[in-house]
Amino acid sequence: MGGPEIERLIELLARLPGLGPRSARRAALTLLRQPRTRLLPLATAMEQAANSVRTCDACGNLDSRNPCSICADEHRDHSMVCVVEGVGDLWALERAGVHRGLYHVLGGTLSALGGTGPEDLSTAPLLARLAGGEVREVILALGATVEGATTAHWLAERLASFGIAITRVAQGVPMGGALDVLDDGTLAAALMARRS
Amino acid sequence: MGGPEIERLIELLARLPGLGPRSARRAALTLLRQPRTRLLPLATAMEQAANSVRTCDACGNLDSRNPCSICADEHRDHSMVCVVEGVGDLWALERAGVHRGLYHVLGGTLSALGGTGPEDLSTAPLLARLAGGEVREVILALGATVEGATTAHWLAERLASFGIAITRVAQGVPMGGALDVLDDGTLAAALMARRS
Ligand SMILES: [Zn+2]
Ligand SMILES: [Zn+2]
């Protein structure tokens, strides 16, 4: 239609979540019409992100610093660790501003159907952090799905030996609901009403 | 949340048509999780498109060749020129495979409200092509909007002196409808039933 470069751009854009073939074409067109002011800046932003963003060794967050800016922040409460399924959940909680402690990103939930076992989840950095002795409470902020509940139960058992409070966000997370689509108020309520 | 690189990436993605802030974050996350296999290839595709894609001097199409691959195609019917508002319409007609001639991209429609006057539309390359003497029919494939109708009328008058057939796609384009959201069958019917 306009050479292999355009086809390739549309093809890769169409693979983004939220963009189908039609909106990928519209996005490509918008970018191609302003190559210097829109296309190249986005290309540069992607390259810089690819070259700088790493997974935090301490918590699993994505950041251009390692340890990430949350782990490195002395003003945050290092005695509380909120365990989430993915970085998207961490972002949602940060946007809501409802958790002033640290995070741990599991990288998924246990799922027999999805073939996700304990070995596929990141727990070693969390255990290492707990072994450090500074943490007094672990908040399990997993989705209110069967997998989320299974994972929370499994993790609570694994952490029991540390003798610290293990709480779980409860009220406000709708059944079957993922965390990162909730509004700030719901997230705040869920975190406030957490239970052991 | 994860450093300025991530913020910038999300901000630029959110400006794409079809992506709001929420889907921009989801898209950024998907890309950041696979920097080498997803983020860098997209960055490269964007850079290559920005460096290679130009506006065709002859018709206004976007292509890595100039004249574009349509204008340069000897197997297409160079005696028919289909006038469209934008490159998105050209793409829609090409996907439908209903026009075997050439195109001319106006770059907009006349709009008093939008402040688009005759001087904002690209007509010089079309006039130059018509002066060449090879074109026997100009098909006006503008949207069935007030602006599309006004523009078609204005253009038909400007082209009258060339003494060639000026037709207009009619049947099948719904009132108020833009061309590039129509299905292939509708586009084919509209083009077949064009009228002078
Ligand atoms: Zn961290
Ligand atoms: Zn061309």
From TrEMBL, chains A, B:
Keyword Zinc-finger: yes
Superkingdom of the organism of origin: Bacteria
Gene Ontology terms describing biological process: DNA recombination; DNA repair
Keyword list, A-Z: DNA damage, DNA recombination, DNA repair, Metal-binding, Zinc, Zinc-finger
Zinc finger (C4-type): 56-71
Record-annotated Toprim domain positions: 79-174
InterPro entries named among the record's database cross-references: DNA_Rcmb_RecR, Rcmb_RecR, Rcmb_RecR_Znf, TOPRIM_dom, TOPRIM_RecR
Alphabetized Gene3D superfamilies for the sequence: 3.40.1360.10, 6.10.250.240, RecR Domain 1 (1.10.8.420)
Keyword Metal-binding: yes
Functional summary from the UniProt entry: May play a role in DNA repair. It seems to be involved in an RecBC-independent recombinational process of DNA repair. It may act with RecF and RecO.
PANTHER family tied to this protein: RECOMBINATION PROTEIN RECR
Entry similarity comment: Belongs to the RecR family.
HAMAP family (alphabetical): RecR (MF_00017)
Annotated protein name in UniProt: Recombination protein RecR
Organism: Lichenicola cladoniae
Gene from which this protein is expressed: recR
